[in-house]
């Protein structure tokens, strides 16, 4: 069964986990363009993407909008509950869901995901509990590496590459 939904944590996966505040109090985050291109390709394959993050940030909301991510949940304490509701809404089984996270607050959503990933700088406990530890660090192409792993596994690599030709 192929993966139809990827679920992304933000801090430590889409970003390097650094939280910087400007003098005016705005938060500043850096995102990897390779992750963005991979997400764009995933969406253009007709697949779904969700961001489930514990923090609230206008910067994250802007990035989700840029990438046309339909399912964006911020300020979430119980990631498992939000993911289960989304899976029910989309009529997806566990085997159709892949998830990436880097810290303890991601464990609950890993429990109901069929395929789990973590950047190589995720906390050790997470690395012991997931299916694939990626070679990339959070914010340095980990999400792109996850997408490439999935498209190879699900034999959709050719379709993915045709998007760019």
UniProtKB/TrEMBL annotation:
Binding of substrate, residues: 11
GO MF annotation: an example: N-acylneuraminate cytidylyltransferase activity
Name of encoding gene: kdsC
Matches recorded under SUPFAM superfamilies: HAD-like
Pfam families, per database record: Hydrolase_3
Keyword vocabulary terms for this entry: Hydrolase, Magnesium, Metal-binding
Protein name according to UniProt: 3-deoxy-D-manno-octulosonate 8-phosphate phosphatase KdsC
Organism annotation: Sulfurovum sp. enrichment culture clone C5
EC number: 3.1.3.45
Family to which the UniProt record says this protein belongs: Belongs to the KdsC family.
NCBIfam families for the chain: HAD-SF-IIIA (TIGR01662), KdsC-phosphatas (TIGR01670)
Names of the cofactor(s): Mg(2+)
Superkingdom, taxonomy of origin: Bacteria
UniProt keyword annotation of ATP-binding present: no
Subunit description: Homotetramer.
